[in-house]
Amino acid sequence: MSEAPTTARVRAKAERRDALLSEAARLFATRGFDGVSIEDLGSSVGISGPAVYRHFPSKQAVLASLLVGVSEGLLAGGRAVVERAPDDADALRSLVRFHADFALRDPDVIGVQDRDLNALSPADRESVRDLQRRYITLWVDVLTRLSPSTDRAELRLRAQATFGLLNSTPHSARSVTAARTRALLEQMALAALGQPDA
């Protein structure tokens, strides 16, 4: 009987933390990390600024949780996609779909990373970069198996260019339906990767 209130309290705290991260992405994307105060962040979810410290020790910790968390999610999700795929061609299509989903769902996070990565502590910034390198390597490994005669440096460049395409387009695709945007992004990404029929 005593576990229910504890479980509800833990769940409510996790939900408030998730809401803070979601609002942080929106506010940082709109105003920049330096343009958002702890009070702004708290009021955006209906709490006081000081109450934010029950969830994060500092505003920089909010940014770190946001950017490190999304990089961890991309790597873990990408690995799961590759592990489930029956072959490398399907793995590549699934990776493109997975990343397009992320770009269309979280354009604010992408904007924050582009502008505010340097606001992280050196350790957190290196953690994000390491996770990103591992995510790129996951793609390059699949591409290498599909195109073994192509230099890995070229395949890495193709993967990075594809991320640029997928990450930047949702910001300018407001006049095209979501379904059409997704289809075009996936088609162009596969062509950029040198695998239009993958």
Topology:
Blueprint: H1 3-31, H2 38-44, H3 59-84, H4 88-105, H5 107-116, H6 122-146, H7 152-168, H8 178-192
Helix pairs in contact: 1-2, 1-3, 1-5, 3-4, 3-5, 3-6, 4-6, 4-7, 4-8, 6-7, 7-8
Question: What keywords describe this structure?
Answer:
single chain; 8 helices; 74% helix; 0% strand
Total number of strands:
0
The portion of residues assigned to helices is over 70%
- Overall mean pLDDT stands at 91
Strand/helix succession: HHHHHHHH
Q: What Rg do the Cα atoms give?
A: 19 Å
Q: Report the major sheet.
A: none
Number of DSSP helical runs: 8
Structural class by secondary-structure content: mainly alpha
How far apart, in Å, are the first and last alpha carbons?
54 Å
Beta content comes to: under 5%
Low-pLDDT residue intervals, each spanning 5 or more residues: none
Written account of the structure:
The protein has 198 residues and is mainly alpha-helical. The protein is built from 8 helices and no strands. Helix 4 (88-105) packs across helix 8.
Brief overview, please?
The protein has 198 residues and is an all-alpha fold. The protein has helices spanning 3-31, 38-44, 59-84, 88-105, 107-116, 122-146, 152-168, 178-192. Helix 3 runs parallel beside helix 6.
